[in-house]
Amino acid sequence: MFQELEEINRRPAPFECYTASDLWTDDHTSAKMLAYHLNDEIDVSSRNSAFIDKSVEWISSRFRVGEGKKIADFGCGPGLYASRLAQRNATVTGVDFSARSINYAEDVAAEQGLTVRYVNQNYLEYETDHRFDLILMIMCDYCALSPQQRRTMLAKFRTLLEPGGSILLDVYSLAGFDEREETAGCEENLLDGFWSAHKYYGFSNTFKYEDEKVILDKYTIVESSRTRTVYNWLQYFSTESLKAEFEENGLEVEEFMGDVAGAPFDSSAQEFAVIARKG
Q1: CATH number, span 43-171+237-278
Q2: Interval 184-226: pLDDT, tens
Q3: What kind and span of H or E run contains 5?
Q4: Whose CA, among 57, 84, 160, 276, lies 20 to 30 Å from 209?
């Protein structure tokens, strides 16, 4: 038992363990995540519909979305952006890890008579002959990737973009990093039963890596039949560090925004957005 508790509270090296699939492919947690996506009262898996409407309005204006505009939404979830952009006659492709979310998005597209190409796949492995005018990665998905995965992602974006094509994504800021604190706790059915349909004890540890500007939310879930650990890594950025990553991968940063709805950049905010371009 002592060794088990030691392991529960062990601080791994940054991005040492990666378990993203546990959230998106497990039957129970994927259902919970979809419910969060569709809950308009919280900004957990997706932002609320009023923000998304505002965001799509701004994206449509900023990137001249309309007939013939080819858009890829990486981490599209249940299609909350993809369907709205398709309503504006864009040609939209959505890619997501969660089969449950993709199935929901496809049902919505069918009901609304929309033509959206949805792909149920880890976007790090996504390959296509299609090329895009605009690539989106929204809700700070980029921050959950390791440095190597981010290099892979940016190289993929550069390949998939048409010449002069654009990228829009958002990230957590250093101001957001400063707000985070290290914590440890244990609770029966942690997060109101999010992790399992059966009784469990959930251990939560938040580790803060000052040099790397990385946060780890580590969850150890102990059920009668199994114990598992989920690692939720989040990279936090300055404008300088994000710009350097993009430029190292042949992408030109055009502008920093406050969010993906066109707010002006605010250095004290917990998030910001970037517009980049393939030359």
Answers
A1: 3.40.50.150
A2: 999 999 999 999 999 999 999 999 999 999 999 999 999 999 9
A3: helix 2-8
A4: 276
**Distance from C-alpha of 189 to C-alpha of 212, rounded to nearest angstrom:** 32
What distance in Å separates the CA atoms of residue 268 and residue 258, rounded to the nearest whole number? 10
pLDDT of residue 43: 65
Mean pLDDT of 246-260: 97
Q: For residue 199, what are the CA distances in angstroms to 4, 130, 191, 206?
A: 19, 46, 12, 23
**CA angle (69 as vertex; 120, 258 as ends), nearest 5:** 80
Residues of the chain with CATH 3.40.50.150: 43-171+237-278
How long, in residues, is the chain? 279
Buried b (16+ CB within 10 A) or exposed e, 23-43: bbebeebbebbbeebeeeeee
